[in-house]
Write a structure and sequence with these properties.
The complex is a heterodimer. By secondary structure, chain A is mainly alpha-helical. Helix content of chain A is 69%, strand content 1%. Chain A is built from 13 helices and 2 strands; from the N terminus they run H-H-H-H-H-H-E-E-H-H-H-H-H-H-H. The interface between A and B is large, with 57 and 57 residues.
């Protein structure tokens, strides 16, 4: 086991360290512990979503609806908070996770039972979810003064020196580490992505595993939806617009093979942190934040080209989803 | 628990030509289009007006131009999600050229060239490096629009020459717009290319079995590269029309259009897994989508709510035939039992 050093993760971690050192050499303040904690907190939503996306991509699917799911759940819980300001936070969290999981389940059922390519399903649900936000909110914003202090305060509350938002990200990372390596579900996800035919012969239900992956991704998107809206203290139709691409980018940069079956929790987390560091470093080194989009696009291309060259198998087309159903 | 392996049936000619025509997806779609037309003309008194209908075509002409090329690309088993970003980049390049005093011919050349270059960029990554097109074009989707944002920020380019407005605002005769003319010409070109040439047969062959196509002497990589070039070129044409129509360029131009283009292609009966589909199907799908959005617009339905319909349409169009197949398979199984 000692021989098994995760090469890709090491390279990525070194790249992130190098980046931080480069920034620190000109702006020492960037590496102050308080600032690094800030960067991590800022990246926490991306980390959580990247982990959900990783599970989906590992099963040879893709979930482009996460940002819309996040926005819809965020709007829903914000409106619930306005209607019932006394509702305790645990209930809000439960509602957010359930709503998100339900939206994930819709994606999952369409992929599992009707065998529709995941990209089509989630492109469709992405627009549908965004449209529904407009329908339920009537295009209006929910602003901070309408939300209860407990609602907006929760993700920012400090616990052992870090905000709750950061702790949730850490807990999610740990939980996923255990789930992917120690549970039947986690192993079957790798099996389904690695070789669906073989997975069927070992008694794994491929479609149901993919369904499970979508539910996990949806639940995390729902959770992040509440955290996002509470943290920025505003909910409107377009929040987290285009964020799904950043989430996919984090996974691709983290070495999750879009062809399924290859990837790790560490990779996804590092991919998200890489993007988070870049995003937070841009204003520090005085580059316009408008560079962000182009940088993450280039990072996707470089990472996918790099991974394909180092990977054993050639990338398969994700549209040609698994031929095995049920 | 049953394991069904999904296979594509390619039967020899079983029905007469007329029977196949009536049973085809295109015929069904055509009936839907007529139904929507009739419903719309009853729902709103403003629908049956030549000028209104002419205005309504702008809803789909630009998207359809890209959809024709995208149809070929999807039939060959690839996809391009970066088309809307190519529009943004091409439009930004044209806007930049205007600041340096470029005239209409130069602008057209720039728009087409940027489109081609972007298509070539995608093509190189997919065919030469052998990467999955969906990831590559998700990456270039960010990259191309990202470059627009770098150039423009939250600014906008204006001041296009007056003659440039011909493409998006001009009329050929009475209510027939220049864009309609482009739409018809491009539709015919792509219909001939796909249905009447060796190249078109190669596209189908690649979509059905890339390895088989390779062994039968088709240069798979080259065909795919050309298809990416064509999709880029069509995005350039659409960028010219859209920019000319709007008269300004913002980096957020055409956001989300890739979804509508893919929806149009899939609605037109093109198999998202590749291998089958027709250009006439895409033409009818373009009209269906145009009529739906125009009809809803007349009824004061906001754009974002229309996008719910587009999303439902995209999923429903694929889901319903599959549901139908599942139900009829179950019925058959029950009969045997």
């Amino acid at each position: 086991m000692m021989r098994h050093i995760p090469v890709r993760e090491t390279i990525l971690a070194s790249a992130i360290l190098l980046l931080i050192v480069l920034i620190a050499s000109r702006f020492a303040g960037f590496v102050a512990p308080a600032n690094l904690a800030n960067v991590f907190n800022d990246t926490a939503p991306l980390i959580i979503l990247a982990l959900g996306q990783m599970v989906v991509i590992l099963t040879r699917c893709i979930d482009l609806s996460v940002a819309a799911n996040l926005a819809l759940t965020g709007m829903a819980v914000a409106m619930i908070n306005v209607a019932f300001p006394g509702l305790p936070i645990p209930f809000i969290l439960a509602i957010a996770v359930t709503l998100g999981a339900m939206m994930g389940a819709i994606n999952g059922v369409l992929v599992w039972k009707l065998n529709i390519p995941p990209i089509v399903v989630t492109l469709g649900t992405m627009t549908i979810f965004r449209g529904i936000i407009f329908l339920i909110s009537d295009g209006k914003w929910v602003n901070s003064h309408e939300m209860s202090p407990a609602f907006t305060g929760f993700p920012r509350a400090a616990f052992l020196g870090l905000p709750v938002l950061s702790w949730i990200a850490i807990i999610t990372v740990v939980a996923f580490g255990v789930m992917m390596s120690r549970t039947q579900f986690g192993r079957s996800i790798f099996a389904v992505g690695g070789n669906p035919h073989a997975a069927v012969y070992t008694g794994i239900n491929v479609g149901r595993t993919q369904f499970g992956a979508f539910v996990v991704s949806g639940a995390l998107a729902g959770l992040t939806g509440y955290l996002w809206v509470a943290r920025y203290a505003v909910a409107y139709v377009d929040i987290a617009g285009g964020f799904e691409l950043e989430v996919v980018a984090a996974c691709v940069i983290g070495g999750i093979s879009i062809a399924g079956g290859i990837g790790s929790v560490g990779g996804a987390v590092l991919g998200a942190i890489f993007l988070g560091v870049v995003k937070n470093a841009l204003p520090v080194v005085n580059i316009s934040p408008f560079w962000q989009l182009a940088i993450s696009g280039s990072a996707i291309l470089i990472a996918v080209a790099f991974n394909a060259r180092s990977g054993r198998t050639k990338g398969r087309i994700i549209l040609k989803s698994a031929e095995v159903t049920q | 628990m049953t394991n069904t392996t999904q296979t594509r049936h390619i039967p020899d000619r079983l029905h007469s030509r007329a029977a196949r025509l009536f049973k085809s997806w295109e015929a069904l779609l055509f009936a839907v289009a007529i139904a929507i037309f009739v419903v719309n003309s009853f729902a709103s008194p403003y629908f049956l007006n030549a000028w209104n209908l002419s205005d309504a075509t702008f809803n789909f002409t630009e998207k359809a131009m890209i959809a024709f090329a995208m149809a070929l690309l999807i039939i060959s088993g690839e996809i391009d999600l970066s088309v809307a970003s190519i529009i943004a980049l091409a439009s930004t390049a044209m806007g930049l050229a205007v600041q340096y005093g470029a005239g209409t011919p130069e602008l057209v050349a720039i728009g087409l060239t940027v489109g081609l270059l972007c298509g070539a960029f995608n093509g190189v990554f997919v065919t030469i490096l052998g990467l999955p097109s969906i990831v590559v074009t998700i990456g270039t989707m960010s990259l191309f629009r990202g470059i627009s944002y770098i150039i423009l920020g939250d600014d906008a380019f204006r001041g296009y020459p007056a003659s440039f407005s011909w493409f998006g605002q001009g009329y050929i005769y009475w209510v027939f717009t220049v864009e309609m003319l482009f739409f018809v010409i491009i539709a015919v070109v792509y219909a001939v290319l796909l249905h009447k040439t060796n190249f078109g047969r190669a596209v189908y062959a690649i979509g059905n079995n890339p390895t088989g196509a390779l062994f039968s002497g088709i240069r798979v990589a080259r065909v795919k590269f050309i298809l990416f070039l064509l999709t880029g070129l069509m995005s350039g044409v659409a960028a010219i029309c859209l920019t000319s129509r709007l008269g300004s360029t913002r980096p957020s131009i055409a956001t989300g259009m890739e979804l509508e283009v893919v929806t149009m292609v899939v609605l037109g009966g093109v198999n998202i897994l590749g291998g089958s589909g027709t250009i006439p199907g895409v033409v009818i799908a373009a009209f269906v989508m145009g009529l739906v959005t125009f009809g809803l617009g007349l009824l004061n339905v906001p754009g974002i709510v229309m996008s719910i319909f587009i999303g439902l349409l995209l999923i429903g169009v694929i889901a319903l035939p599959r549901l139908w197949a599942m139900v009829s398979a179950q019925r058959k199984a029950r009969k045997i039992a």
